[in-house]
Amino acid sequence: MKLFIYHTPELTPTDHLPDCAIAIDVLRATTTISTALDAGAEAIQVFSDMEKLMQVSEQWLPEKRLRAGERGGAMVAGCDLGNSPLDCTPERVRGRRLFISTTNGTRALQRVQDAPVVLAAALVNRKAVVEYILAQQPETIWLVGSGWEGSYSLEDTVCAGAIAHSLHTHLNCPLEELVGNDEVVGAISLYAQWKDQLLAMFHQASHGKRLLRLGVVEDLKYCAQTDTLDVLPIQKEPGVLIKNY
Prior knowledge:
The chain is α/β, with parallel strands linked by helices. It is built from 11 helices and 10 strands. It has helices at residues 29-38, 50-57, 90-93, 105-111, 126-136, 154-171, 175-178, 182-194, 198-204, 206-213, 217-223; strands at residues 2-6, 20-24, 43-46, 65-71, 74-75, 97-101, 117-121, 140-145, 233-237, 240-243.
């Protein structure tokens, strides 16, 4: 098994795909996706383009859909939701399909959607992701951070490091057997330094500061939790994620 970490979708290779691709957008898309599926959403359908989201979701009955749109951290006009996991309560999402487009996370998912297996990971569902990988043993794994508009982000890297750290611990193998690129070593080191102060790290991160300016303090607290949801978002068809049982 070889792990490769790419800090943004733009940094992923274009000439091949891994056996398993894991998209990460801790603040907040993959946290929201995991929370919605745990709360009973029928599926999550991701879009990089808001116009396309509106067109496709129009084919669904209003009571069977929710439109979630976020740009620059704020909700898009005409949508039911923004990108806050705290809005994804069972009362609101159960039995409905969430059509979602965000600034960064949905781009990462679309970049890797042709891989044989595509997962969505955040800190909240780290354990479920690790258990799946240990059970399936894919040969090559990409952990793809969403970053912010093409730039590196601390929160996605620390989540990738948390997954890599847990895999290394469970496999009990020399680190060099697991590491596919230098970014893996860096991410594990970042996680080791901040694992007990993740919320403090989010307050240091540029996107965390951006969200704090928007007043979404509780979102940061929620997204900084580790292993709180036993849910694995897995791609059923390109762009559509369901809960893996």
